[in-house]
Amino acid sequence: MLKYFILFASILFAQNTLIIDSKIIAEELERPLLVRFEPETNLMYIIQQTGEIFIKNGSNTILFLDWSKHITVKPMPDERGLLGMAFDPNFKNNGVFYLSYVDTENYSVISRFKVSSNKFKADISSEEKLFYFKQPFNNHNGGHIEFSPIDNYLYIAFGDGGKFGDPFNHAQNTENYFGKILRIDVSSDNNYSIPNDNPFYGSDNNKQEIWSYGLRNPWRFSFDAINGDMFIGDVGQDSWEEINYLEANQAGINFGWNLVEGNHCYSNPDCDQTIYTEPMLEYPSDAAYWKSIMGLREKNITGCSVTGGYIYRGKQIKSLYGLYIFSDFCSGKVWAFNQKSNEIIEITSSLLSSDQHMIASFGEDIYNELYIVDYLGAIYKIQKGK
Length: 386
What we know:
CATH architecture: 6 Propeller
Distance between the termini: 41 Å
Helix content: under 10%
CATH class: Mainly Beta
C-alpha cells in the first residue's frame, strides 16, 4: 500500500529554497485549458475550452482549428467543451492528433484528426470518432488524454458523470467509462484495439478499455518522462483533494471513490480502506468553490480543486529536477512535492506575481520544461530565477 502525505493548510511547508521564476508566453486568451507541444518542432498549441486551438509561432498566433460549433460549453462553472488534445507518437510522419470534447448533444467524444496540407491548419473533415458516450450532467467530464512514453498507448480520463457524491455509483462500476482511466491502442487505422494486458481484456461484463477506476474527477494526469509512472490529480467532493500515483504498467487499481475520499471513508463510515489504493498525497479542501470562480479569493486557504501537474525532467532548473509540480484551481497555489522525502514546498510567490490565478493545467514541452496554464487568460513558462 502506498504511503500518503497529508498537506495541511497550516504547514506552509518547507522553506522555499527553489530559485525559480516564470515569464508570460501568451495572454489575452479566452478560457485556456491546456498547452501541447508539437513533436520535433516544439511549436506550442493552446487549447481553449471554447473550442479553438491556436499555434504560437514566435510572435505570431495562428488559428489551427475552430471546433466551437461542435461542442457544448456555457459560462463557468460548466466543465464541458474542448477538454483534451494529444499528438500521435508518429505525428511527424502521419500528421495525426486526437481531441477529447463534449459535443452539442452532451456526449463525451474521443476523435482522431489529421493536419491539412497546410501544416498550420487542421483538416476538419478528417474527424474519425473512436468512441463516445452520453454524459448525465454538465460536470465531472474529465477528458484529459495522453500517450504514455513507455508503451505508446493512449490513456483517457473521465470523471464520475457529475452531480453530488456519484449518485449512480459510476466510479465503482466497471461496466461503464465513468470515473475511470482508459487505455487503448490507436496504432492501426482501424479505430482502436484493446491491449491484451489491460485488466479486463476479453471480459464480457466489464469495459475492456479500463486501466484503473474509482476516481471522482481526474483533472489532469501525466507520465514521468523518464520511467512512465503516472500521476493523477483527482478533485475531491467536500473535504479532500488528492494526487494518485501508478507505477508504469500498474493495471487494475481501484482508488476507492465514492466509498472513500482521499484516505477517508465517504459513503460508508465503516468502509474497509485496505482494499483501495491510497493517494500519494492529499490536502484539505477548505475553500468555497463558488467564491473562487467569482474571483472572491479567501485568505489562509489551501484550495478546493486540485490541478494535476508533472514531474520536472527539464535541464534548466536543477533544483526542481525530479519534483512533482501541481496546483489548486481555487487558491492558485503551486507546490513542488518530493516523493523521496515527502517534503512539499510552496512555490507560488516565486512563480506568480499575485494570487489571482486559476491554474487549469500544466504543460511539458519536448525538452521537458514546464508551463502554467491560467484559466484567466495567460500561459507562463517556469524558468530559473535570478
